[in-house]
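User: Can you fold this complex?
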Amino acid sequence: MNTCRSVVEPIFSVSTAKAFEGLFTQGSGYMHIRGSLEEHLQDAPQNITYHRKPANVTAEEFPAAKAKWGTYVPGVFDPHPHLGEEMINLPFFLGLTPFIGGEKLDMEASLISEYRRELLLYTAVLRRSLKWVTRLGVPVGVKFERFISAARPNLCVQRVTFTSPSEVPISVRAGIDADVRTNGFDHFVGVDMAHVGKDCLKCTVTTNGGDDVHIVSRVIAQGASWALEGKDRRRDLVASLTIPCDKPLVVEKRSAVSTGRDLCPQDPYAVLTETAHIPYEVLLDEHAAVWKERWKKADVIIEGDDTSQLSLRTSIYHLLRCHVPQDDRVGIDPKGYAGDAYCGRYFWDTEIYLLPFYLYTSTESAKTLVDFRVRTLPAAQANAARYGYRGAKYAWESDTYGNECCPSANWQYSDHQIHVTADVVYGIAHYAYATRDLDYLKGPAACVITEASRYFLERVDRRPGDDYPSILGVMGPDEYTPISHNNSYTNRMVSFVFDLASKVGKHGGASESECRTFNEIAMALPILRDETGLVLQCEDFDRLAEPDFGKLWPDRGKPFASQVSQERLYRSKCIKQADVILLMVLFPHEFREAEIRRSWDHYMPYTTHDSSLSAGIHALVALRLGLAEESWEFWTRTSEIDLPFRGGDPSAGIHIAAAGATWQVAVFGFGGVDTAMQSDVLTVCPRLPKNWHRLAFPLMWHGCPVFIDIRPGECRISNHGAWELKACIYNRLCSIPTGQSVRISVP
Amino acid sequence: MNTCRSVVEPIFSVSTAKAFEGLFTQGSGYMHIRGSLEEHLQDAPQNITYHRKPANVTAEEFPAAKAKWGTYVPGVFDPHPHLGEEMINLPFFLGLTPFIGGEKLDMEASLISEYRRELLLYTAVLRRSLKWVTRLGVPVGVKFERFISAARPNLCVQRVTFTSPSEVPISVRAGIDADVRTNGFDHFVGVDMAHVGKDCLKCTVTTNGGDDVHIVSRVIAQGASWALEGKDRRRDLVASLTIPCDKPLVVEKRSAVSTGRDLCPQDPYAVLTETAHIPYEVLLDEHAAVWKERWKKADVIIEGDDTSQLSLRTSIYHLLRCHVPQDDRVGIDPKGYAGDAYCGRYFWDTEIYLLPFYLYTSTESAKTLVDFRVRTLPAAQANAARYGYRGAKYAWESDTYGNECCPSANWQYSDHQIHVTADVVYGIAHYAYATRDLDYLKGPAACVITEASRYFLERVDRRPGDDYPSILGVMGPDEYTPISHNNSYTNRMVSFVFDLASKVGKHGGASESECRTFNEIAMALPILRDETGLVLQCEDFDRLAEPDFGKLWPDRGKPFASQVSQERLYRSKCIKQADVILLMVLFPHEFREAEIRRSWDHYMPYTTHDSSLSAGIHALVALRLGLAEESWEFWTRTSEIDLPFRGGDPSAGIHIAAAGATWQVAVFGFGGVDTAMQSDVLTVCPRLPKNWHRLAFPLMWHGCPVFIDIRPGECRISNHGAWELKACIYNRLCSIPTGQSVRISVP
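Assistant: Here's the predicted assembly.
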């Protein structure tokens, strides 16, 4: 195991404070909290009310702020007046602030040295240590540490340790601040704060949608006497303490959270009481043990390139964090529960970008994600009916019930980006094929597949003069061509749905004649090509205006969309993200290499990569095409997108789809593994970058755990499963008996 | 003069109450009030708060209500939280309610006979007479009459006359009700009500945008003693009176209005004081005298067809009413100030549908309308800048300052329906050519023309492989094809702008080289045709889905758009309104008759006429094509759209653009007059319908008043101007000396 075990913030800077705050997000699945400073920053109010309008998030400018708190319990959604249902930013309960001689610890104003903050990836612990020379001249050592317990997902545990060469009086303030907003809006219609017992603070907020959220914090410090301070929506417990000269002063804060929507309701006060006598270290150990199990199934080792190792492991950390254990009422939002820019809703990112990681590392997590779609079928049916259509149309932006939350001002996405319904079915199929849970397709998912097909039937048109059916008026993955015809990606995905429905639709209530129709259309939906054989993104894409990027896009550091109007985007041949290229990633065997190369050359000059979903997909295709330089460029773009010290910016949250894509590039790209959608046999054809000495990772294949260990020129697969496994390595078919491994060298 | 002088409501029915309320709207230009009942209806609250969302108004369903009050002062705009700036529905001050024996006069509950309500078109007076048999059995005659003084535009005068065969005690309640909403929103942040003097009620409201509106009502009845009643936002003056058996009891109510934005601020109390000693009849006479002058310049006589006469005259009544004297800060809203469905904003309807009526009947009114566009140039420049463009882009929905008020949810209209800017320039040119005020183009309007062209330069794209420039990504007049390329209407109109700018642009600051560019593009912008010569609405219109109207449009009485989703509209070959057909109306000499016929045949099956702007334009083309039946059908559709007894529905307001189109069909269509945009010489080639014995109307031609009198087979033109006039009648050129007339028979 190599040394890239933590992400480090070596010095504190206000300019990157919000980025590290996003990057250092911790979570248990049940809840997630951004990596905010315990004592907060000055001049960074979190109760600013502003009017966020529905917009293209890519081009949107968010209010400037030094810090942005974020405390989320997935699934706690409530109505925003303009944006629709959104995930609520809950009260901030990490507050733990030392004062010495009246001076507050302040990362900007205080004299700080020996600063280091790090997120321990393997244990999901956030640590900060620093030396604080107070105005009185005393050097005080301060160490913060915190984790959200993976073993007790409702529990957040914090500790701060003070040391000093001489005895120093110190006061500590531990609070809950409910004066927060979500996207500038105040969702709390009721806030109730109370001092419970001697050392507990209790906060209950009632949201405008009727959700109740309870937070109890207990502060623990030997000999401390806690007094209540604060008013309105903020309360602190304050104690005067002393740092002895001979040993550390330790203050702990433990907080527990519950909401009215919990699957297993727990009284947060009881959670604290139950754990009151468990020492910090024991809580930490049980937490770390859970994470250890997670990493065992998912860690990807890269040797020879610490930067890639660190970025990939950071991606995996966040993917593991976002895992929502056994709760199919929620998915994973595009900001990885590290921000509310996308209102905590669920998009197609889930199926196409995130699901593969879970499918091949943790079957249960993957099932939870596809079960979410099965469970929300009724909302998708209601959504189709809203358009006057039969069947089920999955929401572009789904809340926990599956309702379409896309604001009406963004109708072009919700009305026309219909591929999301096909992506949902693709994800379901991918689950079934990858896990070999084929009965799933005939069971609960069959209705989804049938209903999706019935919806798509409504979207198929036959134009006079054409000898093929068409899907008209759609937005493909490229959101800069809002209403186009026969988008190749959409057509192929819909064709996939029809084909699957023709086979399993009867289990979902489809008649034989319906199944025949599904089959006919599946066969007939075209992938349009021009006279040179170029796969067309859609009809008439080439009749749009040539964008003069040189003139219109002066600042390449920001998205193209932030520098031109939407109107210009919509009349220009500019592409937000992989579209035809994504099609070729999902169905690689249907396109010859020359054809892929032709698409690459044709569309690349128009592709802005404004979307974080773009780079990873391009890396995958570049690897297929043997474009070493390009694949490396896109690999670093996708893998470093959230590393502030590599130019990334997770201020508004983690680009969790890019994290998923990063894993896919590592495993499917460099590792050369075919997905279960592409091959029935475990097929591996590695393409290691020159500087990598080793790439190794565990994988679940058809329910069988394997370990794939790639070194230059060779690949070893170990079968940790209970049955013999067939594999195809470097195009050589072999069998791997249970408990054994096979090593194949490059032919 | 024939007998069609009034629109009559012969019986009262709740089912048509709101329609007649719209139809009977009165106004002075300064203010407009819907034809609501003085005593109101029961169960028709006007203070319902609801959430109106931005939507396609054509497909929108408005809250059901028996009655809808509307009191508007054009230009009083204030912000609505979701809809943007909107015209405010002001307090209702017409309230004048009799009670006899505790029984309120109630059109539904009372025993009513001999009912008749009529709007006297020539004098703009609304009269209602009825016999009310009270519960006590006494038959009481009631006659309401009211007018908004054209001579004193701030003044509204009401009178009610009671008669009875025996003496009857009666109480009368005269009030002001400020508890009203505009589109479901309460704009009033302050309401102040006071009893002033003995007989006056004063109401001042302050809007959320900071506008102050003052209303003072005085009640006049011999021997009455008025007491104040009511609370909150409603106040009434109440008096107990007696209807003598030998003579009528007359109660008058006079109300005056002022706002903080008035050009000539008047104290409304002073207005009432000044007119206190002027008898009702005298006020009526001076009002009627102004209307008489208006009609002299604008009445169109139809003999042989009373239905057409009445519908046309009703249209003209509303066009005359909407005339805004000398105030270029306002235009005319699509509901003719008889409803707030379009928020009182100004659209392209002004230039293309309304302006011709004013141009050829009242030069001053026409100038006010084009001056509005010149005055609001700065807002149009700011609007273009908002897109990152040079020049001026006129707002799709303009407020009094010219600001774009189209809600962001309707971005497809504001972003893509760019023809509005060309329509504005067309209107300016039409004004200059029709009035021969050619200096206008070199004077204040030159900047508009230059800036419009600079904006359009930003919208011209040159695609590789094309030998012509293109305008991409537009919505033409047909709003069901939201983003299309080279829309023929838009291209031709923009070409018109470039051509004009190449000639007069230098007066607006354009350089010689700019003017050359304008000229080049004007020449090169294409009107696309297919291989058969068909003028294309836009590129690829024919690649949209065939709409199955038979299946999708079960209720032809309602718009197609109300029965399918917007998503289906946008992928289907369905047309909201005249598009290519409108192009052919504006530039008739550029298209051969066979070409027009081909367009008619091709586009008609796809045209839904969902827009009220459609029928009139189709009537004009049908007349050109000699399609008698079709022209008649479209004539009745456009002219009867607001006549409830002919199937029309002005509930939500007057379709004022259809009224303008109705006048155009009469004069340009049946009358066969070429516009000044089409001919420099007054050209008349009548096409009388079979049943019409006569069609006669005054017209201002190049500043010269003429009277055109058409009878079957002949046409007489009288020159009432100060100079000899050339004319071309039935293709025969002639000269008409001043004061004389020329009669030409069909050759």
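Chain A touches chain B through 38 residues (CB under 8 Å). The mean pLDDT of chain A is 96.
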